[in-house]
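Hi V.,

You were right to ask for the full record rather than a summary. Here it is.
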Amino acid sequence: MDISLNRKWLKLQSPEDQVVIAKATKAATRARNRRANELYAERHPDRVKARRKRWESKNVVSRREYNRQWRAANPDRYAQSMDRWRQVPKNRMKSIIRSRIADAKRRGIIVDEVALFEFIENPPTHCAISGLLLDYSTGRGRRVGMSPSVDRIDSTLGYVRGNIAIVSHRLNTIKSFGTASEHRMVAEYLEKFL
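Predicted structure:
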């Protein structure tokens, strides 16, 4: 249909109908464009990813500012989204590993980042000490009971390959407060009286 004919037809409509028709046309156009973009993204995911990276690199400051303002305006929604994000084992391990690396660098402890990042790719499901199932579901980064934590087997060495294990937070805390002989004495005492 000719565009000029469409405009003439639209002018013949009442002003209220013109507004409704214009809104419907805009909505239909947006839906058509959205679908076209989705199809393009399905066919060319690498191009879309590269374009997104270019945009992000050019707009880092404005994007950070927008994110900061959104977090300040929506603290509850942000907390919920972070809780959901942390419940995914890979994400929880990423958060734990990054904090361990930053803490170790600040304290001057040797860190093998490659060895630590391997735990992100394959998050352990069971505690290295007890063999019990680790709990990745605790929200807001709380470390309780069976939530995972990074253990240096020999605390005099750094976070290096062969000296790292993922254990429950509870057992890691207990381990950090004594030597093997002290733990044996406590175990014998508990077996004797309990």
